[in-house]
């Protein structure tokens, strides 16, 4: 068997799209996931799409014995590290879970990597490390800020931990990929975002309304100093993100040390602009009501992705129309996500625009 890339969290939303990109690029992969926010079906879909068996171990990155076992059995030469908890709101209620999973989990993983002399790591970071940005569009070189949530602090702490690791040993090559707002799904409609429980992010909440499961969308805040009073974000297609991971891994073959790259489109859209674009593209009306600002939201945030363009040759290829079309295709083909059906959810009743 050739050199293998270990993909932690590879059954999840961004991890599954990246696993697909790696397999399509002819690479050998091994997915490690405890399925706490995903299911085996995403990997079965990948197998169908690629006509390849996906090596999978169900397990937790906090299990040091398991990590030892994996690194001793497989010829791993790089790790893509997606696993972690990602809900901003939940992190406020359960900070210990977030620090244990995201920070201690990464620490365990790095220990195992060092023991087995695997020094290439691509880490899923987030624009949240910039906190309230001092300048927009955001460039990497201005430095990080003060994240507003425990979730954001786990990402910043992990970045700092990884920077210290690179200082301590020049053999490490680490990519910090700072995602902006990932949305969309693979064009096949076979894999996509499948959040457990009640969604928090804008697109999953919006599609719940479009599917008729929730009567209206709540728009948090109408008095921000933005184009129309609602928050502006840089939405980026998950397939473009996957391609960014592939390019970052290639770049690590010839550079040591730690490198941060923004993965965003460089364009900002407000919540109202997203609602209108969704209505235009799908023909479905999205009733909404305004509510007070959501704690921890910043008014505006979008990237300057020039550094990723220059260093990696990566540019987001897919525009907002494509992002919404692909999100909607995934949703329509999989009204209950990866589950064939669910009696927990109300039946689907699409609201055609009148
Ligand atoms: P996701 O929840 O779909 O995927 C994470 C995967 O990790 C899941 O399959 C989950 O089961 C697994 N996992 C969690 N804890 C684990 C553990 N201890 N051991 C093994 N597996 C574990 O999330 P996603 O949207 O694909 O995000 C992937 C990464 O990108 C996360 O680190 C997240 O913080 C980061 N990120 C996501 C976004 C976003 O908006 N989706 C934005 C910025 C950064
Ligand atoms: N929003 C609504 N109604 C909803 C859901 C969201 O108005 O029902 C608004 C939010 O208030 C915000 C915007 O839509 O103004 C985007 O919110 P999301 O929750 O989709 O995304 P965030 O920008 O808050 O956070 C996301 C990820 C984080 C990541 C961050 C990086 O969830 O993990 O992007 O920019 F850190």
UniProtKB/TrEMBL annotation:
Pfam families: Epimerase (PF01370). InterPro entries: Epimerase_deHydtase, NAD(P)-bd_dom_sf, UDP_G4E. GO terms for molecular function: UDP-glucose 4-epimerase activity. Pathway: Carbohydrate metabolism; galactose metabolism. Its cofactor is NAD(+). Residues 6-264 form the NAD-dependent epimerase/dehydratase domain. Keywords: Carbohydrate metabolism, Galactose metabolism, Isomerase, NAD. Its EC number is 5.1.3.2. It is an enzyme of class 5 (isomerase). It catalyses: UDP-alpha-D-glucose = UDP-alpha-D-galactose. Homodimer. Belongs to the NAD(P)-dependent epimerase/dehydratase family. This is UDP-glucose 4-epimerase.
């Amino acid at each position: 068997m050739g050199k293998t890339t270990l993909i932690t969290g590879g059954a999840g939303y961004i991890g599954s799209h990246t696993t697909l990109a790696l397999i399509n690029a002819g690479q050998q992969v091994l997915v490690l996931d405890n399925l706490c926010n995903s299911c085996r079906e995403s990997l079965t879909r990948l197998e169908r799409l690629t006509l390849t068996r996906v090596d999978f171990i169900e397990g937790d990155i906090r299990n040091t014995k398991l990590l030892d076992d994996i690194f001793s059995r497989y010829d791993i030469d790089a790790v893509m590290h997606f696993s972690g908890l990602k809900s901003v709101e939940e992190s406020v209620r359960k900070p210990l879970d977030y620090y244990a999973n995201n920070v201690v989990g990464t620490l365990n993983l790095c220990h195992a990597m060092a023991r087995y002399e695997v020094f290439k790591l691509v880490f899923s970071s987030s624009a949240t490390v910039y906190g309230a940005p001092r300048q927009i569009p955001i460039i990497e070189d201005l430095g990080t800020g003060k994240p507003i949530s425990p979730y954001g602090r786990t990402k910043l702490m992990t970045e700092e931990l990884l920077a210290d690791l690179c200082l301590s040993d020049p053999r490490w090559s680490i990519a910090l990929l700072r995602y902006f707002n990932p949305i969309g799904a693979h064009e096949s409609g076979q894999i996509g975002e499948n959040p457990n429980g009640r969604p928090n992010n804008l697109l999953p909440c919006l599609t719940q309304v479009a599917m008729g499961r929730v009567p209206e969308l709540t728009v948090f805040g109408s008095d921000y100093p933005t184009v129309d009073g609602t928050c502006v974000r840089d939405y980026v297609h998950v397939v473009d993100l996957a391609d960014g991971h592939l390019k970052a891994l290639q770049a690590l073959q010839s550079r040591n040390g730690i490198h941060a790259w923004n993965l965003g489109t460089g364009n900002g859209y407000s919540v109202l602009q997203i609602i209108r674009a969704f209505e235009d593209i799908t023909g479905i009306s999205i009733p909404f009501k305004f509510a007070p600002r959501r704690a921890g939201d910043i008014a505006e945030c979008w990237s300057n992705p020039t550094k990723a363009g220059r260093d990696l040759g990566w540019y987001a290829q897919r525009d907002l129309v494509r992002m919404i079309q692909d999100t909607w295709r995934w949703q329509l083909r999989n009204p209950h996500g990866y589950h064939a059906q669910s009696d927990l959810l109300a039946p689907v009743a699409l609201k055609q625009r009148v």
